[in-house]
């Protein structure tokens, strides 16, 4: 979900920027700004400012107010950056943030309570419990494709857990980045939550600081760089990456509904979504009918004027990347294939049976192009998926629970939707995250609170009785009693 600005984006998501391993070569004032931002939020955390429940609740209310009162400014910024239609931008970027902040705020008083645990025989009489405590200073590197949601939802998790935060929005959506830089200090604590704008050099300068945790949404390639930088400080990481999320269509599926929902998932945000359907594997018995329904659905979702109000590809480099993927695909272009470089538009495209070894099938597409491949049966589809890196999402269309169970047991992915696409992202208490090359860690709801917390274990023992039995020197009699006791 993050896009690199100075080099080719790795297949999978949009990346905030391409941070280097350190700040060598970065201007002194830029390194100083990064250090000042880190030290400022770190000081706020160490002063205890972010720990009280009242502070956390106030920040969550601030996020809700920010997206509500700043709606017009944020929608205008996203329209300026890449032409996001107003309703789509509100639906995909603003509404999820408000819902997440409200959901977390209402449940936070319960989540912060100590959680009792069985102390074990050795600690009787005694009590055991765990307490969630903040990690400290958290760096959030956010992407361009959902520039509000993917900046503020991680922020919600971080402040709910009592952390101080530095947020770096993506430079590829400069209007939205500037809007967030104006709005965040207006609605949240400016001492403990700071926004630092800039490109790859800023990301590198921030990664050189000893943050306690780094939350990165972006490509797998850049995720490796972020993880390496965090390892220098032994900082924990949440990496929300991407990959090629497959669609499996069984012969018993409702093909019309399946095609419509796959088309919707692929065309939302012009395909620039980390969990967008990346390719479809369809049983050959129903392949012609599915493709026909798919072409119809794409035409209906575009409307009479495909260019009117369409989300643009974020920049010229990505347009050329998509054009290159199309050129290398082989297969048959069933619909679409046009590239409007001047307006940064790529027509919704279906490529039937492309070369499985082509870049179109090896790289995450991140655009409105859907390869569709015929398979003999679901077993062949499962084998195809298993032979590739673990995806962020997997979509299965079937009405047979036995098929569903087989696919769930035989594959691994960050998340799964059965008979729909992408909607698992909207479930407030489902952890959202990847596995393997598609990411590490998860957030949303309580999962985000736990991800950005350290669960501290506590055992409390009374001072009496203080049995001599447990202290050396040990003899045979003590050993016999200890063995009985434990």
UniProtKB/TrEMBL annotation:
It comes from the Bacteria. Residues 1-27 are annotated as: Disordered. Pfam families: Aldedh (PF00171). Residues 9-27 have a biased composition (Low complexity). Keywords: Oxidoreductase. Residues 31-458 form the Aldehyde dehydrogenase domain. The active site is at residue 240. PROSITE patterns: ALDEHYDE_DEHYDR_CYS, ALDEHYDE_DEHYDR_GLU. Gene3D superfamilies: Aldehyde Dehydrogenase, Chain A, domain 1, Aldehyde Dehydrogenase, Chain A, domain 2. Belongs to the aldehyde dehydrogenase family. This is Aldehyde dehydrogenase. It comes from Aciditerrimonas ferrireducens. The lineage of its organism: Bacteria, Bacillati, Actinomycetota, Acidimicrobiia, Acidimicrobiales.
